[in-house]
Amino acid sequence: MSKQLLSLGVIIGNRDFFPDSLVEKARTEIINVLSELSIKPILLETTDTKLGGVETYKDSQKCADLFKKYNEEIAGVLVLLPNFGDERGVADTLKLANLNVPVLVQAYPDELSKMNVANRRDSWCGKISVCNNLYQYGIKYSLTSQHVSFPSEKPFQNDLKDFLAVCRVVKGMKNIRIGAIGARPGAFNTVRFSEKILQRNGITVVTADLSEILGRANKLTKDDKPVKQHLETINAYAPKGETPDEAMIQIAKLDVVLNEYVEEYALDATAIQCWTSLQQNYGCNVCTSMSIMSENMLPSACEVDVTGTLSMYAMQLASGSPSALVDWNNNYADDENKCVLFHCGNWAKSFLPDIEISNAPILGTSIGVENTYGALDGRTPAMPLTFGRISTDDPKGIIKAYVGEGELTNDPLNTFGNRAVAQIGDLNGLMHHICRNGFEHHVVMNASKTASILEEALGNYMGWEVYNHKG
User: Which intervals hold domain L-fucose isomerase C-terminal (predicted)?
Assistant: First the structure.
């Protein structure tokens, strides 16, 4: 998934006793700024209202009608305040449009050399009034990093890019469909979740019996055209290493069926039973297929960790890049702010420059290494890190999450599987929060710095309980 282009509704606030020329200039400026960022603006024409601004109730009705016309397209609303603005006009527009999308409130700064009647803005004060009214109306909104800022300057444009990411997360999370393939492994109570709580939040879980998937895979042969095609795709994706040809065919057959299932049920993500029924009853690991799906922005989590793959999807929306499900696995020597992240190997290729198809030695000790081919081997090098986890807290009847940022490092790590070393400020405090609040041992990593975006999207707009670990 690339960072898809989005449309923004734009409300330009106005107030009759402030200079109208400021509204006219703001309209031209924001159209140019959004055009440079490849964002489609939905806003009133200058002939619809006075200079295309929103001031009176009739202005609000016209702007709301315009927004309703583009209801399916608008991902968020930008409120511009080139002068004090009319707080009722802004709030009424959003109430009448009833878009239920993120709202960013911007205000222009005054300049000391332009504080006369013809140029004075008072937007600093007007923004407070607009936000006060939005709060009264129960409309959720976001703020720029600086209280006032010019749209043409970098601080605001960075805020706008972050806001677009918030819009992507909110829009994507409201209609996600997750395939839960197989039963939760009996020994993994940690990945329990509530389908009903998720459904109340717009997240649909589509279940499938693992035997149905394996049965369909077993009916395929190495000579079937789809199997040959998927085998070519897998060979192009990662070196096979010492993986036997028979195991590669098994992996390809399973990959065919999983892709058919995703297509058939219009799934955005999957969580698959991989421990240990698949190895015992089919004879390979599904990690390679999961890695390919995650790399192609269809995140896939092991051990039927549905909220784990939901977390992967949220981070993917925020960053526009793949995510990986990992274990908080080991301490790193005696460094209190470093730890080892590990899985036996289903991470997206983006995290594994030295990727190779291999086996799963730990699982192989109990069921035979020959039944575990399809796991990936590779070390993640230094890169930015956003980590986090979404969970249903069933006793409380809520969805909760934690997020934070750190770094992945190049520190030495002599082991197998998919592995990385993470450096996180106050790591011990984070572990206390995870343990005290009953979070899972699985966490999600993404090569980005998007914790604040996730906090805003999941906490402010989705209404979930979010802890942002500042370290």
Answer: 341-467
The owner of tokens 């997750």 is 178
Ordered structural domains, the chain, with CATH: 7-173 (3.40.50.10940), 177-469 (3.20.14)
Question: Over the chain (471 residues), what is each successive 10-residue block's mean pLDDT?
Answer: 74 90 95 95 97 97 98 97 96 98 98 91 97 98 98 97 98 96 93 98 97 97 98 98 98 98 98 93 97 98 97 98 98 98 96 97 93 98 98 97 98 97 98 98 98 98 98 86
Q: Please say whether the beta carbons of 151 and 244 come within 8 A.
A: no
Beta strands 383-393 and 398-409, pairing class: antiparallel
- Position 57, amino acid: Y
* Paired tokens of 328: 């908080």
**What is the reported pLDDT for 4?**
57
**What tokens appear for 266 in the block?**
């219009």
Give the closest residue to 81 by CA, choosing from 14, 19, 28, 147.
14
The sheet carrying 300-302 orders its strands as 204-208, 177-181, 269-272, 300-302
Global model pTM greater than 0.90: yes
